[in-house]
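Chain A, query sequence.
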Amino acid sequence: MTDQLAFDFGGYEPHRPKRPERLFFAVFPDTETAVNIGRLADTFLCSRGLSGKRHQTERLHLSLQFVGDYQRLPSGIVFAARRAGEAVAARAFEIALRAIGSFESPPGRDQRPLVLLGDGDGLSALHRALGTAMQTNGLKAGTYFVPHVTLSYGPWAIPLEKVGPIRFVADHFSLVHSLRGLTRYEVLGRWLLRHRRPR
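Chain A, predicted structure.
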């Protein structure tokens, strides 16, 4: 898995970077599912003697679209991102997390993300719809998409293997402000996934 870390927004950040304010869209699992994901990660790390620190349960998510990294979060960008989120009309859908493995580490680092890979037609459709809405509102959007939940970081190379699956229904998506290096997320917008009524 060579290119996929470029879409990993959880980010292993041992120190605060030069651009510490990150903005991205994501799907968060419900609390019960997040706890189950955390348990699976703990069991997997322990059973293989891996020492990586697992991500906090409340931060587990599937990234949808990256907006940008900034020294200070621009209010105009936040406004445009919120407009994009509001423009998306979609129904709730099921996500299945079926496999676990590690992505390649970025150049100059030895930390690989350990991830759960997910699938679901609705997830890819939401990624595309959100990308279109972002471009309409003057934001750049990515086309490369590998749905995953980042669990931990470490130097290991873990071949892909099947798990579960862990299933849950995605009924909303969020605009997230990540304070890089501080392991804190602030949700700046949240939109339900449902068909909008015709006017």
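The CA atoms of residues 69 and 84 lie 18 Å apart. The helical segments are 31-47, 75-87, 121-136.
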